[in-house]
Amino acid sequence: MLRQLNMTLPTCFATAAERRRSLPLKPPRDLVLTVPDAHGGHAVAWEHLLEPIDGGRTRLIVRGHASADWPNLAHAQRPAGQHRIFIERAYAALARLPRPLVVGFARLGHRVTEARHLPGIRRRSTGTRTAVNIERWRKPFLTCGILAGALYVAMTLFVGLLWDGYSAADQTISELSAIGTPTRPLWMMLGTIYTALMIAFGWIVWTSAPRHALRIVGELLFVQAVFGIFWPPMHQRAVLAAGGATLTDTLHIVWTVVTSLFFMSALGFGAGGFGKRFRFYSLATLFVVFACGAWTGTYAPAIQGNLPTPWVGVWERINTNAFMVWITVLAMALWRAPRPMSTDGRNALGARP
């Protein structure tokens, strides 16, 4: 493992003779990627050399070389039956520019590439301590996802029991936190706990998930939870029917739509996180969330007019609780998954899987 990464970036465009004068290869500390030319040489060479230095450290040196006749090779005709790929076409177009521009663009492109490439190597070679810290919090924070899903389902089913006349089957979840309702204080208190749990869960998925798609899910859950902190409340139906709607009611609808998009995006990316069964389950949940959410939205005029809305609460609870169950399943799947890889290719305890 590289304990320290000192990086230099000498970039040059050399002739074939100059390439022959470069340092000899020193396996296994030298990695050279080349593009051959038509004369047994190399049109382009990209070298990564590990050089030991004092203090048990290692310096990574990256060298880029291009032959003087590279522009001619770039737009040379391909053999019959072979077609250029996109990047070859791009290089061929670049090679038609005047030589000073070709060299300038090539240097710039190489430096831009290395500006992302080398920090990535640094991050992967020196991130063990960070990985250990994440591993320490991984299972407790994954538990937060299970608790968050269970808490929200319980909130939607049982908080309404404290409001005489409230019907979980015929009224929406949002009405439990509407302005002036007897259940709003309890809902806000429990909602704060739920939000904290989801922020913790989203963060750990974001930072430790074994696949990129799941890390995107973590980002979405984290941002959605923070976004939900500022959720504007709606007014009660009677106030809406009497023309008492304000900006907060409009923003409540906006927050609902945006949150639904977060949910469906998380399900879509999450479908690629594990095997076929989880993919099928995620896509089925996505369909349920979309269908029930869309059907719930058709009740909006009746809610604003204080008219009966039979089964609206059932459809909405299927919509939200299906997603919360998915969160719980995701947390359990991540709990059973192999430990996340640290940035040097080892697991959080320092052993290769």
Topology:
Layout: E1 5-8, H1 16-20, E2 30-36, E3 42-53, E4 57-66, H2 70-74, H3 86-95, H4 99-126, H5 128-158, H6 184-208, H7 212-228, H8 237-241, H9 247-270, H10 276-297, H11 300-304, H12 312-336
Parallel strand pairs: 1-4
Antiparallel strand pairs: 2-3, 3-4
Helix pairs in contact: 5-6, 5-12, 6-7, 7-9, 9-10, 10-12
Key words describing this protein structure:
disordered C terminus, 2 domains, 353 residues, alpha+beta, disordered N terminus, 57% helix
Quick synopsis:
The protein is α+β, with helices and mostly antiparallel strands and 353 residues long.
Describe this structure in words.
By secondary structure, the chain is an alpha+beta fold. The protein is built from twelve helices and four strands. Helix 10 runs antiparallel to helix 12. The N terminus and C terminus are likely disordered.
